[in-house]
Amino acid sequence: MGSFYRIVRFGFGAALIALLAMWAVSTLSWPFSRDQGILAWAGSVVRAGGVPYRDAWDVKGPIALVPFAATQFLFGRNMWGIRVFDLLIGVANLTALAIAAHRFWDRITAEYAVILGALFATWLNFAISAQPDEWCGCALTVIVAILSSTKQAITLRSVAACSFLVGLCVLQKPVYAVFILLLVPFIDRRSRAIRKSIIAALLGFSLPIVATLIYFGFHRAVASLIDTYLLFNLRAHVKVEGSPAEQVRYFLYAWQAFLPLAAGVPLAIFGAVVLTTRSSRLGALYLLWFSLNVFIIIVQGKYFEYQFVPLVAPVALGGGLALRQLRDFRPAAATVVLMTFILLFINDPLRSVKEWISYRSGKISRNQYDAHFVYLNKNHYDSGTIRLLATYVREHSTKTDTIQVWGFDAGINYLADRAAPSRFGYTYPLEIGSKNPYLQGYRAEFLDKIHEKPPVYVLVPSQDAFGSMPASDQSFNEFTGFHDFVLARYNVEKTIENWTLYRLR
């Protein structure tokens, strides 16, 4: 009976691994979402010699553009290059998770943690994968793996390496600086050693930041970096809305909607309790890792799904610890819990692989395949419509023409290989009003560029309101300086789904 059980377990494990591998390959065919389209457009501007913020405006940190520009350099203008990078990050994250779990407890814990981590990863759809926050989450997992390597004080080299990774994350969002606290339980408490550790931490942390300042200084764009990445985000973008009670409600709603957390956190809490009773130092590291992730989600006050992704690894590790403990005392219970998680998460990779096989075998067209990639609703983001718009614009304009997409879909510029007439490839900073002290200055700059070289097309979507953001056609109508300019000099040439295309006369 034991041998039969081992055969069944091996066969089931092999089938699960094969499915997860096929799912990973299928992600290479996934289209962009809005954020990836914006970053791809900005990355293409940088690759062409432009500078972030000065030539391609975005709220995200400067490090976010590097993978997009680099993969375009390596693989060309496509949508799969960044997916290759994202898969490599995913493998690195699971590897670091396995190392950390093994050091926290043992090999079996590592196996459980990796299974949960891989299952959780399949829940990250085309819109919330390949996001800079996900990559920062991987850096944090690597930090935890490094810190868990010794029961004694960590070496100065490890302090510098971990601080360097935190510095990289700060170049995505300044709030990631709080993760320097992960090092505190592991620093040698002797006075001379503390001074050396602080110096090592400062050197590691500052290295990527100083390198970034040198880059922007060389291009005389430090003011653009500070004005957008720091000041705009602080003064206009990062605004916590609602009362404390409403914030708690927003947080809990977003939390329960994110299945890896809704399902995994109760198990992870049990694992954290078990770990803390065995090792107070590793328990403190785990609790810091988990709680600091929760802290930065709350501080940002947006509760976008991708902001929860860095929590996936600590939840998977905590779940692995809990399953390991159950296996020691109730092996059948551990099997039942693990199978429950597999059943919860297996549907998405099965569906994704089925759709991918249909597409790759020619049973469905690219347009039919893209129809599966809608975020929120078809008017908000429909990847098939975005591809149709990009194809139409590319076929009805020349490469030297510019196009202006009103709204959030600068990915159209990228896919059509058409530049924007200004640094505002997407128009978020031109739309938010009462909380944006930059609004008038940005609009004046935008209008100057539009008048200087009118784009051959202006594309405006409708019925795409999201959260506190109005529908794009509404904000377009309210920006009378631009709206009147378009009506005076453009004709409506075509409508595609909920998009209106204005052509320069």
A few lines on this structure:
It is built from 22 helices and six strands. By secondary structure, the chain is mainly alpha-helical.
Rg on CA atoms, Å: 24 Å
What portion of residues is helical?
A: 55-70%
Shape: globular
Number of helices: 22
User: What's the mean pLDDT score?
Assistant: 92
| Class inferred from helices and paired strands | mainly alpha
Topology order in helix (H) and strand (E) letters: HHHHHHHHHHHHHHHHEEHEHHHEHHEE
Low-confidence stretches: none
Sequence of strands across the biggest β-sheet:
3-4-6-5
Quaternary status of these chains? Answer: single chain
Tell me the major beta sheet.
4 strands, mixed
- Compute the number of strand runs: 6
Beta fraction: under 5%
Distance between the termini: 79 Å
